[in-house]
Amino acid sequence: MEKRVLQAVLLSLAVLLVYQSFFAPRRQPQQQAATPATPAGPAATQPPGPAAAPVAATTTGSTTALPASVAAAGGARIVVESDEVRAEFSTRGAVLLSWTLKRYPGAHGHALDLLPVATDVNALPAFSLTTSDETVSNTLAGANFTPSAQTLDLRGTGGRTLRFDYEDPSGLHATKVFTFERDKQAFLVGFSAQVLRNGQPQNFTIHSGPGIGDIERAQPSGGMMFGSYYQAPDAITYAEKIQRVAAAKLAEQRVFDGSLRYAGVDDHYFLGAALLDRQSHVEYSTHAMQSAAGPRTLVAYALSFPQAPTEVKFYLGPKDFDQLQRSDQQLVRTINFGWFAWLVVPLLRALKWVNGFVGNYGWSIIVLTILINIAIFPLRHKSVVSMRKMQNIQPRVKAIQERYANLKATDPAKQKMNTELMELYKTAGVNPASGCVPMLLTMPVLFAFYALLSVAIELRGAPFMLWIQDLSQHDPLYITPVIMGATMLWQQWITPAAGMDPAQQRVMMIMPLMFTFFFLWAPSGLVIYWLFSNLLTIGQQYLTNRIVGAPGKPAKA
Predict the structure, then answer these.
(1) Residues 95, 71: Cα–Cα separation, whole Å
(2) Cα–Cα distance for residue pair 68/57, rounded to 1 Å
(3) What are the residues whose beta carbons fall under 8 Å from the beta carbon of 319, sequence distance 6 or more?
(4) How does pLDDT run across 197-251, given as a tens digit for each residue?
(5) Splitting the chain (557 residues) into consecutive groups of 10 residues, what average pLDDT does each group show?
(6) DSSP per residue over 335-372, as a string?
(7) Fewest CB atoms within 10 A around its CB: which of 212, 252, 265, 534?
(8) C-alpha to C-alpha distance for 269 and 297, rounded to whole angstroms
């Protein structure tokens, strides 16, 4: 009986996996707290306060945006370098042109530049400022700022601040100050600015640049079951909870007003966000571009405030759980662990703890798999023992069922059959659900491991051994999925099949083939977990046989 329940669960799981992989649209969270305001025309609603700046020069107002590389052309390059990042600024406009993450390789093995080189995108460069006065905005975009240093090396004990100043005879004075490794965090930058016209402060809008992300990989796929799946850039805001809007949906909803904790753009593994904690007005825009890997869509944003802020902190870096948590507790919400986040987080911490000793994430997965299987050994042992008992009394169960087979389900006499079955189970010391429930309790671990291995940047590019050089991608030779399928067949063969006739057993033998097909494109780290979990389960089955004895002949009716 419990085996039929398990069969139904597994078949349902297979259907859900197929649906997710081929048909399911990406789920968008419901709106919370931050109130979106979709503009009715080219002009967006401005936040209250004096001298509110236009929101986005790329989509609203009259300032003409140029490609970021063109807008900053002609200026001197100022390089800032730390152990984690190499940044490049242009003195023209005092804007950020490059933010290279040294420890994270891109598609071609070189260090990844988080700011794509978008020569064909009409967007202002990162940290451009615009005001409500078009003349001032154009002047700031073309102004040649004076830097406080030609280079800045953060690997020593020197200063962490880079200042840009501009002043002209018309009375315009602008200052931009960048504070690196803000709060002692490698990817956190403090940004403050001041724009004065004839001594009067001017409010301004801060622009994020054309977009962020690993554009060589940033393309959505059919579903997360595929190793090639990669989340394309999304707009994110956080008020009371995180809200995510895909690029395709920004035409319907691109403006957010409210007291926001942070806002920005993320993709599968990386994040660019402003830490706000204040009343803010954010407008998003999309930009189509052509990369070496094909067409891509970038997501940019512009920030404005009721009054010019003293400082805004920006996170520009990987979605590393610990790094995000140190920068802002709620930034970890940008990692989309799904429904099982409550289990994924401790699993991730455990995996990183194990890796601190092992030094290889592939072997760390195996060690953690062993520890998990030790923890759930009692549940699995209880499940096998219960199924063994059910197998022994199955002829007596069938005999009772056959006596009442000709009765309709609505016949009161059917109740007597259920009473006899319950009495039989009680006499034999069997709980019909005890064989199924312990096994179902292990399923959240599988889902949590899948979510962990699919989105945790710790596994991005992490090698195992031999031909598996990236645990976040599928096995390029498909060897481990085939071996995993073989272990599932082995496991099915030796598992007690209580209450199943030969035809049902043959149906159950199809499940390993289905799982093998799904796992062909699953992250190789997940396949390794499932493979070694199967091997440990097989070993436990043989151990249980030694403890309780080999399966005996079923009791006669």
Answers:
(1) 9
(2) 13
(3) 266, 269, 270, 271, 334, 335, 455, 457
(4) 999 999 999 999 988 888 776 555 544 444 455 788 899 999 988 999 988 888 8
(5) 44 47 38 41 37 37 47 79 94 94 82 81 89 93 93 86 94 95 91 93 93 70 51 89 89 90 92 93 88 81 92 94 91 88 90 92 92 80 72 78 73 76 77 63 78 84 87 86 87 63 62 80 85 86 72 51
(6) S--GGGHHHHHHHHHHHHHHHHHH--HHHHHHHHHHHH
(7) 252
(8) 16
Distance CA 436, CA 373 (A): 17
How many CB atoms within 10 Å of residue 237? 27
Q: What is the pTM of this model?
A: 0.77
3-state DSSP call for residue 37? coil
User: Which residues does 477 contact at the CB level (< 8 Å), separation at least 6?
Assistant: 467
- For residues 412 and 424, give the distance between their C-alpha atoms in angstroms, rounded to a whole number: 20
Residue 551: phi, psi to the nearest 5? Answer: -55, 130
Token digits for 235? 């707009």
Rounding to the nearest 10 degrees, give the CA dihedral for residues 403, 406, 412, 416.
10
Comparing C-alpha atoms, which of 102, 80, 78 is closest to residue 317?
102
Contact 281, 47 (CB under 8 A): yes
